[in-house]
């Protein structure tokens, strides 16, 4: 099976809503894994726009721009962390498909909104436990600590990911492969990743107030 489909075009509205995980089931349900767009790749112009906007707002709000050297380090780490996905399908999806093909107990309908929302909850639940364990288990922290090595907290920090992190996170999604089709999982694992991006900023005073409580 091949990579995500890079040919499906998104409208501007869909692209913006994609970044905030507010696309609807009828827009993002696909029968096969080959039909699923590469949402992370399509998010590149939105990453760039939001990074530029944050740079300007930080300068206006705090009176100083973001530090270029720290940001470049984060961006470089993000590029390196994506290299395996350029050549091969990510381990999260590959192992998920293997478990689905060999161990699934039942098959929920791929085009049901209930399946879509259940997957939304399941992926978020899996990510919660991965992230918690990544802070509590030594060998998992070794693959996650790069994300917390930035000296500044901004949108580039969201891209500062370890090359090794995916090799400790994929097991938390295996239970879903017992009944949720890979095409549905492939959508949500990407949206969950994209959602992490915009919350890594200090230029939103309302968000900062909530996070600091």
Automatic annotation (TrEMBL):
InterPro entries recorded for this chain?
A: Fatty_acid_hydroxylase (IPR006694), Sterol_desaturase/TMEM195 (IPR051689)
Q: Where in the cell is it found?
A: Endomembrane system
Q: What is this protein called?
A: Transmembrane protein 195
Q: Among its keywords, does the record have Flavoprotein? A: no
Membrane spanning residue stretches? 114-130, 170-191
Q: Which ranges carry the Fatty acid hydroxylase domain?
A: 117-202
Describe the task this protein carries out: Glyceryl-ether monooxygenase that cleaves the O-alkyl bond of ether lipids. Ether lipids are essential components of brain membranes.
* Pfam families in alphabetical order: FA_hydroxylase (PF04116)
A GO CC annotation recorded here is: membrane
Question: Main site of residence?
Answer: membrane
Picking any one GO molecular function of the record gives: iron ion binding
Keywords on record = Lipid metabolism, Membrane, Oxidoreductase, Transmembrane, Transmembrane helix
From what organism does this protein derive? Answer: Pleurodeles waltl
Superkingdom: Eukaryota
According to its UniProt entry, the protein's GO biological process terms are: lipid biosynthetic process; membrane lipid metabolic process
How does the protein associate with the membrane? Multi-pass membrane protein
């Amino acid at each position: 099976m091949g990579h995500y489909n890079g040919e499906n075009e998104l409208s501007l509205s869909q692209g913006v809503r994609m970044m905030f995980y507010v696309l609807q089931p009828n827009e993002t349900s696909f029968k096969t894994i080959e039909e699923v767009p590469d949402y992370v790749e399509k998010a590149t112009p939105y990453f760039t726009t939001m990074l530029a906007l944050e740079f300007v707002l930080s300068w206006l709000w705090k009176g100083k721009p973001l530090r270029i050297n720290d940001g470049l380090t984060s961006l470089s780490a993000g590029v390196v962390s994506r290299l395996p996905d350029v050549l091969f399908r990510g381990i999260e999806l590959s192992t998920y498909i293997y478990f689905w093909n060999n161990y699934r107990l039942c098959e929920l309908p791929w085009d049901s909104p209930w399946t879509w929302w259940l997957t939304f909850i399941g992926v978020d639940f899996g990510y919660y436990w991965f992230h918690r364990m990544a802070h509590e288990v030594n060998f998992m922290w070794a693959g996650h600590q790069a994300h917390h090595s930035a000296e500044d907290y901004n949108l580039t920090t969201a891209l500062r990911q370890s090359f090794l992190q995916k090799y400790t996170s994929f097991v938390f999604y295996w239970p879903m492969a017992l009944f949720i089709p890979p095409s549905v999982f492939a959508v949500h694992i990407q949206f969950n990743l994209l959602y992490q991006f915009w919350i890594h900023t200090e230029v939103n005073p309302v968000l900062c107030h909530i996070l600091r409580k």
